[in-house]
Amino acid sequence: MAHESFEDEHVAALMNAAFVNIKVDREELPAVDALYMEATQAMSGHGGWPMSVWLDHDRRPWYAGTYFPATPGHGMPSFGQLIIALDEAWANERDKVHQTAIRIMDSIGKRNDFARAGNDAPSKTELAQAITSGVSSLAASFDPVHGGFGGAPKFPAPLALEFLMRVDAYNSLNNLDEDPRIQTMLETTFELMARGGMYDQLRGGFARYSVDATWTVPHFEKMLYDNAQLLSAYTSYYLLSKSTLAERVVRETAEFLLREMRTPQGGFASALDADSLDEHGHSEEGAFYAWTHAQLAEVLGAEDGQWAAQVFNVTETGTFEKGLSVLTLWRDGDDDLRFESVRERLHRAQDARTRPGRDDKIVAAWNGLAIRALVRASEVFQVPEWLEAATQAADLLVSMHLGASATAPASRLVRVSRDGKPGTHAPGTLEDQALVASAFLALNQTTGEQSWLDFAEILLVDIAEHFVDADQLTNSADDAPVIAHGMQHRGVDPTDSVTPSGWSAAVDAALTYAACTSDMRWSSWAETFTTPIVTLTAQHARFAGWGAATLVALLDGPREIAVACAPESPWRRAAAQSTAPGAVYAWHGDQPLLADRQFDGVIERAFLCRNFVCEAPTTDLAEFKKQIGVRV
Q1: Are the beta carbons of 559 and 608 closer than 8 angstroms?
Q2: Domain 2-108, what architecture?
């Protein structure tokens, strides 16, 4: 619509004559998007983007829809015709318009009722039953040939994969029978995602999704949240499988984040565009990433070009469009040195192309995901540069996002910043507060620095004080500006999408904080909000991935690990390689779990607790690894 209608001079003149036109970045203002999406669904019966909503002077919606064509067709008016009709309705039927707006506002918020929390926390039996049903629901939608869930377009679903990995680890740790369905889903999906065109075989990092069911042709846009979550998922998969392919994906994706997504301020940018200029100066989707036979030969020479075409499946007719192919790697090449030489030369040649544009805004929640993923990967693979980058991003969130709004508490993040300036127009959401708190908790465990634990507590207290309405966790705070006159409810949604919902992220962060501090008040608080997650996990696990993963952690404890050891000890490294669902660990003397358990400089040992009940300490490293699920 931007190209077809908004850039058309005639349509733009109609719009400017009739309306005050506001284009909203839904990534900056998710509460605005959610409110009007609910209105759009109520009026049209479906939702989606682009979304056009007409508001009265109190910002109440009275007409809405998704795509409107530039010319009439298929029973739809053109966007220009619609503008004229709606302008006439506003001028001649104002009372009817107002009544429609009131009726729509009254209907908004009623879906909140399905997300009522229970009075009692679910029992262990109820948790186990929901988790078992969740695995079965994922197995029912699993693609056994190509991996992943559902058909085209196919999304990577890292949260569902994290859930399955936690179930697999839980079964192993608790001496339960392995579920062969889980092994198949994990192995097939992780292998084929990494070998397909959705994964960038030259530069590392993942595109948003595959337009087909085979992971061959991606939608080329690269989002921070996808890469952060897939970095975390492949790290988890490496710990379970010791897959060399998973290790390569982790290393390349982490380096992609540091090389191409970091901003001068030390945060991580939101996205790289799908489009860029091709060799003829035309803006084309995938122009930066796709190749022809001739282009390979030009860069590599005839012999290596032909070899690369076979390895990367670059065909004469193309696997994409206009004779272009997306590089895939369905099987490894027969010469590692040659493969690396080819990749390096193609990478240099690609650097000479016009790069896709970058959305440089820093989104707090997505940076939280990236920080957490990089911290964990740095511990598992012993790469201090990744931890340093994660720490710098966290420092930015504290210095620029926390308390930046003059109209919100000092304990509140602003959602976005850009070019070193906080976006005070975009108040932090539940998602921002919770995912950043989780990132700070990851930093606390790895660095042992108390300040990160303190900052996590600040964010969690703000959630408990301002993001709870009766028995529900709300997406926006009780002191956030009201979007439209007549709003009776703040948005509520425990359903996970491409990122964790604020609801499930808050439950996870509170459980993690409780385990790190032995503060049972936070675990009790978190458990009161698990009932909707249990229901979603049992019935729709694809839309409750992180919530379901959190339930597995709750079922297992989560395990609280304290190691009294030297900083570079194999005991500390073992703790970081635990596969126990949601496990936390402490190794530094100032961390709460190590109270009265400091290293005496002689005997290294570990203390393992579950649900705040501790076993006898062990001085046997092999036994310790077994207790926390370290796989070799």
Answers
A1: yes
A2: 3-Layer(aba) Sandwich (3.40)
